[in-house]
């Protein structure tokens, strides 16, 4: 049995190093990039909201945002959200000035900004949480990030598809040129692969039922992608 030397390179610069090393390989070879993806439905989400208030004094501004956040957290916990899934520790406070022409700046008040990040494990409740936020004085919804709880499992599936794709492409190319694959010389893997979510279009005319609105948040897909660069040895003719 032939002995095959296999190198595995991990990191962002993997592709560059593979190309550089491939130029020095003293035997017939070919390079391929295998790609794989898995499409899954999200089963959780993380959303963030903001409350911004401007008042005459710093104390009043802070009090206003604190009260709104406290009411929101109380409603979330009453609805069954675990305290560990609520992050509300950050706050910013800044003086606000008016700048009249040819006059010194005038202090007009203080702006307080406080955000809350919530992890939702039941997507069917996401819309009600957002409604609660707006009802409690929160005046900005910043982001809704759809996720899957077991992303590592799906990332592994996408990786295996990428590996199979690299093998199939290499075998097809070698066969097309009247040759065959004779082992793997180097594997370069980008460890920064991340799930790529995309939204599937949803639309309806006014008067939609509540369950339809809830479905508009959950009827989406997350595409988890992966890729691998491989240098294959070709059989000696």
From TrEMBL:
<dbReference type="GO" id="GO:0006974">
    <property type="term" value="P:DNA damage response"/>
</dbReference>
<dbReference type="InterPro" id="IPR007497">
    <property type="entry name" value="SIMPL/DUF541"/>
</dbReference>
<feature type="signal peptide">
    <location>
        <begin position="1"/>
        <end position="22"/>
    </location>
</feature>
<protein>
    <submittedName>
        <fullName>26 kDa periplasmic immunogenic protein</fullName>
    </submittedName>
</protein>
<dbReference type="Pfam" id="PF04402">
    <property type="entry name" value="SIMPL"/>
</dbReference>
<dbReference type="InterPro" id="IPR052022">
    <property type="entry name" value="26kDa_periplasmic_antigen"/>
</dbReference>
<keyword id="KW-0732">Signal</keyword>
């Amino acid at each position: 049995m032939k002995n095959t030397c296999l190198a595995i390179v991990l990191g962002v610069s993997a592709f560059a190093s593979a190309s550089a090393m491939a130029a020095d390989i003293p035997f017939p070879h070919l390079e391929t990039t295998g790609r794989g993806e898995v499409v899954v439905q999200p089963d959780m989400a993380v959303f963030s909201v903001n409350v911004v208030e401007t008042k005459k004094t710093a104390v009043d501004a802070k009090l206003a945002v604190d009260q709104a956040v406290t009411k929101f957290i109380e409603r979330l916990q009453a609805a069954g959200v675990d305290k560990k899934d609520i992050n509300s520790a950050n706050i910013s406070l800044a003086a606000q000035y008016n700048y009249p022409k040819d006059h010194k700046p005038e202090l007009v008040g203080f702006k307080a900004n406080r955000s809350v990040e919530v992890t939702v494990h039941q997507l069917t409740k996401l819309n009600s949480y957002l409604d609660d936020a707006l009802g409690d004085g929160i005046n900005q919804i910043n982001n809704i990030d759809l996720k899957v709880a077991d992303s590592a499992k799906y990332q592994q599936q996408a990786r295996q598809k990428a590996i199979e794709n690299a093998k199939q492409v290499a075998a097809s190319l070698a066969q097309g040129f009247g040759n065959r694959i004779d082992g793997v010389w180097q594997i370069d893997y980008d460890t920064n692969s991340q799930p790529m979510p995309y939204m599937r279009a949803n639309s309806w005319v006014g008067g939609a039922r509540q369950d339809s609105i809830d479905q508009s948040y959950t009827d989406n897909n997350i595409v988890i992608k992966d890729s691998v660069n491989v240098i294959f040895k070709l059989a000696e003719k």
